[in-house]
Design goal:
The protein is mainly α. The protein has 14 helices and four strands. Strands 2-1-3-4 form a four-stranded mixed sheet, with helices on one face. It is elongated and about 90 Å long.
Length: 347
């Protein structure tokens, strides 16, 4: 009986692969999601500041004001452009610069004399993400330059009591491309696993073949398990090629951990998400209904699983709820294995 069930599951799975072979739309979607989609999100969906246009109104013309301008380096910022004070409003209204720094007269002299002084930072807030992050970058850069200038120009030889040194582990250059690419692949695995299995069941129902299968000497779990292993196999093969050819090859991401371990956990994870795709397909009566229903699940799993927003920054109640979803643990595993070199010995 067991041997016959395994043979039925294998044969039905082969049938699913042949059905997918003659579905050009789904084949195109698989190729796109594991190639161009990963590259697009890795290269363009950056969360940092890249090539931001900045101008400086230097009313002081001191060594300190020039030092602040020289600290705004590429690739975060474009070379700062000198601007007159009466040109600030027109430049900001024309959206020529995202940031305009106004250094007041006698800035260095007032600072050395201990008198209060202010640097004005004008921000084009129409680009909200760039405005918030970039303003923080500029504030940090100015603070560093002021601290270094004051420490170097102190008359006494006393050293500062506290010297803060920041060391970035696992990504010392703080590049977002590799991380975004790997997280895009992880999210696409979830999305395609649900879509493929759900579409396979919907396709059987629309073509009327699901009734033929049910009247055959087959049990329901054999039909469902065949869809799980065949579509899961397609996702694993596509993810493997994407990991080696796109993420390591095209993007040049350095993978610290074990890729076979990542793929092994992916296989285990696929049993849960492909089953979820089948369950959603049983609730929907057509492909448009399945797409709308799956969209709600995608948004929740992709945005709240920790791939884009750290789980620790979410409310405690939401963190507890997300622990019930397999995607949360899969994202955590992907980050630990691919970027931190975690292995089976990690508890």
């Amino acid at each position: 009986m067991m041997k016959r069930s395994l043979a039925n599951i294998f044969q039905l799975g082969i049938k699913e692969l042949f059905s997918l072979r003659y579905d050009p739309v789904m084949l195109f979607l698989i190729v796109y999601m594991f190639s161009f989609s990963v590259m697009e999100e890795a290269q363009n969906a950056t969360t940092g500041v890249v090539n931001a246009a900045v101008a400086i109104v230097d009313e002081d013309h001191s060594r300190l004001s020039r030092r602040i301008g020289d600290a705004l380096l590429q690739p975060q910022f474009q070379p700062p452009v000198a601007l007159a004070i009466d040109e600030i409003d027109a430049s900001m209204e024309a959206a020529r610069y995202a940031f305009v720094i106004d250094i007041p007269p006698r800035f260095q002299a007032d600072l050395m004399a201990g008198r209060p002084t202010v640097i004005q930072l004008n921000v084009d807030a129409t680009a909200m993400g760039l405005a918030g992050t970039g303003a923080g970058y500029i504030q940090h850069i100015i603070s560093q330059e002021l601290s270094a200038f004051l420490n170097n120009d102190q008359a006494t030889d006393q050293k500062t009591a506290v010297n803060i040194v920041t060391r970035a582990k696992f990504n010392p250059n703080l590049e977002a491309t590799g991380f975004q690419g790997a997280m895009a692949l992880t999210n696409n695995i979830t999305m395609m696993a649900i879509l493929l299995t759900g579409a396979a069941l919907i396709r059987e129902r629309e073509h009327g073949t699901i009734e033929h299968l049910l009247v055959m000497p087959l049990r329901p779990f054999e039909i469902m398990l065949a869809k799980v292993w065949s579509n899961g196999l397609v996702v694993v093969i596509a993810a493997t090629l994407s990991l080696y050819l796109v993420i390591k090859g095209v993007l040049g991401t350095v993978i610290i951990g074990s890729i076979p371990l990542y793929l092994f956990v992916t296989v285990i994870y696929l049993f849960s998400v492909t089953s979820l795709g089948i369950y959603l397909a049983t609730l929907a009566r057509s492909m448009p209904q399945f797409g709308l229903l799956a969209m709600i699940v995608f948004v929740m799993m992709l945005l709240l699983s920790g791939a884009h927003t750290p789980l620790e920054s979410m409310p405690v109640a939401l963190q507890m709820i997300m622990q019930l979803l397999p995607s949360t643990h899969f994202v955590s595993m992907a980050q630990a294995v691919l970027f931190r070199g975690a292995g089976l010995s990690v508890k």
